[in-house]
Structure formats: structure tokens, C-alpha cells
Specification:
Length: 350
């Protein structure tokens, strides 16, 4: 309903077509409109999201109060160690009382032609092995002057989880296989020792005056020998020579170097000595020139005896397996115990 002034009189005009009968006064109409709007607003707010009242945002709110203390986290003193995987021990099968080896067809083949992996490997005597190498050369029409190689696998274990350090050794073979002698340099300032060294076949002999030519690569040798008095004077060569630098290590069985006063004996060893080393922690691979059977046996025995001298004899056999072969022949396993000298039997006390 709207009131307006017309010609000095106030007249009312109704906004509704129903007339003033339905809404007799303005207050009733206003209340009805507010109820409708309030209902629509509540319905819209409930359907779309959280409701917001007309309360001021700055008004104080009653927040919940915690009346108990928080649980304190416990610190771990020790970190959880990962579980260590237990190493499985290698299973050793005893075939001594079996009718055939484990995983094999039989102890020995019956026919001349057979599959090798179905039978255990044959280990020959040393004499038979050398004879077979000679026969292979005749059957295969190969030259008889080809080199012969030996391959040894060593048991490097010692007591209390210790192991034998890989070593390099020089041995004097009874039948040398080299045609040229090694170059040997002797450090000494004694005139008598220098004269003996020159007469024994040393390539170079001298004292501190040889240091600068060696540093300038004017002089080089295969082996370096020094008397004990010269060791402090040749220290500038330590970085240059490295492994060849003279120092005392296992006497005359060390590699490249030795310190001593018996110059003729040392020169005799290193001029024609045969050198071998331990490779891959436990293998010795060296060469023996093809010779008559007796010479091969003597050289082979000398090498095996020198190898076994690097570990105490009471620790058991040092050589686990031994193989000999040539360029054109197959690898033959032989019994290394037949070559080594047998320990003397202890006499029983009466």
C-alpha cells in the first residue's frame, strides 16, 4: 500500500490485486514478507554449505579447553639394526661310501667316448701327465718346443680367520727357461763389493751417483739390489721405483728387491731366476718351457716346493688343485702331493 498526497488530501493505493481485505494493515504485510524471505534463506544455506549467522566475526567464541597433558613421545636410543642375512655354508657331500658320485652317472666311464660332465674328473699322476702331454704333441702334429703352463689353486686360509697375503716369488730353476739374463743393478759404495758385483754379472754398480740417472730414466733394470748401508741414501728413489725399491722382505724370495751382503748369491738368483706371483687372491699361473720329461719334472717340483714354503706345513696341504697344459693340449689335473717331498715319519719313543 502506497500513500501519496493529491490536492491536499492523502489517498492510499493498494499494491496487491486482492485488495486490503487480505492484508488489513501494513504491519501484517511486512511480517509475512520477512517470514518468507527468512525461510528461503535457511533453505538455500542448508543446501549449499555451512550456515553463517548474523553474529559478528569479532565476537568471542567459547573454544574447548584441554584438561589433560599430551603424551610425550619416547626417543629411540638405538636405531633398529637391520637383520643380518646368515651366510649359508657350502654343503660338502661325502661320496666315499656311495655307489656313484653325487650328481654323476658312475665313478668311471665304460666306453671310450663319453660326456665328460657325467663323470668325475680324472686326476693323473705327474709322470703320466707328462707322458700324455708328449703324446698329444705327436698325435696333433704340433711343435714340441711350445711352452707348458701350470695352474695352481691355493688354500690361503690360516688360523683365526687370517689369510696368507698374496706373494710374488723368484725361484732358481734347475733347468732355466730364459735365453736372456735379467738386468740387475747393485747399490754399494764399497770398492770390494762393487768389484765382486761386476765380476758376478751385475749390469750397473754404484752408489748415490746413480740416483739422478735413474730419476731421468737414463738407467733402468729388472731387479734392484742394495746393501744395508745404502738404504737411507737411496730413499729419493722410493716414489720412482715403487715396488722395485729395495727392501727386506722374506730374504731372497721377494719380488724385484732384496737387501743383503751376499752379492754373488743374490745376483745368481735374480739374473736367471724365474718369477711367479699369486693372482686373483689364490691362483698361481706360470710357464715352464717344454723340455725332456726329466727336466719338466725337476722344474715343476722346484716351483711347487717354493710355493708351499709360503705357508706352515702343519696347516695341511697348501695346493688344492694343480693343472698342467700346453697351447694345443687339453688341461690335465695331476696330483701335486706326488711331487712334494713327504715329511719324515716321527720315530716312536721306545
Amino acid at each position: 500500500m502506497v500513500f501519496y498526497l493529491s490536492g491536499g488530501t492523502v489517498q492510499s493505493v493498494s499494491l496487491f490485486s486482492h485488495g486490503p481485505q487480505v492484508f488489513p494493515d501494513m504491519a501484517t504485510c511486512t511480517r509475512t514478507v520477512w517470514k518468507v524471505l527468512a525461510g528461503c534463506r535457511r533453505q538455500l544455506l542448508n543446501a549449499s554449505g555451512p550456515t553463517y549467522t548474523g553474529v559478528s566475526q569479532t565476537a568471542q567464541r567459547n573454544l574447548p579447553v584441554r584438561t589433560f597433558a599430551a603424551v610425550r613421545t619416547l626417543k629411540k636410543d638405538k636405531k633398529e639394526e637391520p637383520e643380518k642375512e646368515e651366510k649359508k655354508e657350502k654343503r660338502v657331500i661325502d661320496d666315499s661310501n656311495r655307489h656313484k658320485p653325487y650328481g654323476k652317472t658312475a665313478w668311471a666311464p665304460v666306453d671310450d667316448v663319453y660326456i665328460i660332465r657325467h663323470y668325475p674328473r680324472t686326476v693323473y699322476d705327474v709322470s703320466d701327465t707328462i707322458d700324455m702331454l708328449k703324446n698329444f704333441q705327436v698325435l696333433d702334429f704340433t711343435p714340441r718346443s711350445q711352452p707348458v703352463y701350470i695352474d695352481l689353486k691355493l688354500d690361503m686360509k690360516l688360523e683365526k680367520k687370517r689369510r696368507v697375503d698374496p706373494f710374488v716369488s723368484t725361484v732358481h730353476l734347475p733347468y732355466p727357461i730364459k735365453t736372456q739374463m735379467n738386468k740387475v743393478l747393485v747399490f754399494t759404495e764399497d770398492a770390494n763389493q762393487a768389484k765382486v758385483a761386476q765380476e758376478s754379472g751385475a749390469m750397473f754398480v754404484g752408489g748415490a751417483e746413480l740416483i739422478q740417472p735413474i730419476l731421468d730414466d737414463e738407467i733402468s733394470a729388472d731387479f734392484y739390489i742394495a746393501v744395508p748401508d745404502m738404504l737411507p741414501k737411496i730413499l729419493p728413489l722410493k716414489n720412482k721405483l715403487r715396488k722395485k725399491f729395495p727392501k727386506n722382505k722374506r730374504g731372497n724370495k721377494s719380488r724385484y728387491y732384496v737387501i743383503g751382503t751376499n752379492i754373488p748369491k743374490m745376483l745368481d738368483l735374480f739374473k736367471t731366476g724365474h718369477e711367479y706371483m699369486v693372482e686373483s687372491d689364490c691362483y698361481v699361473r706360470t710357464q715352464i718351457l717344454d723340455m725332456p720329461k726329466e727336466h719338466i719334472f725337476s722344474n715343476l717340483q722346484t716351483v711347487l716346493i717354493d710355493v708351499c714354503s709360503h705357508r706352515p706345513a702343519d696347516m695341511g696341504p697348501f695346493i688344492e688343485r694343480a693343472i698342467i697344459a700346453s697351447h694345443t693340449s687339453e688341461a690335465l689335473w695331476f696330483k701335486s702331493g706326488d711331487v712334494l717331498p713327504k715329511p719324515a715319519e716321527k720315530k716312536q719313543e721306545e
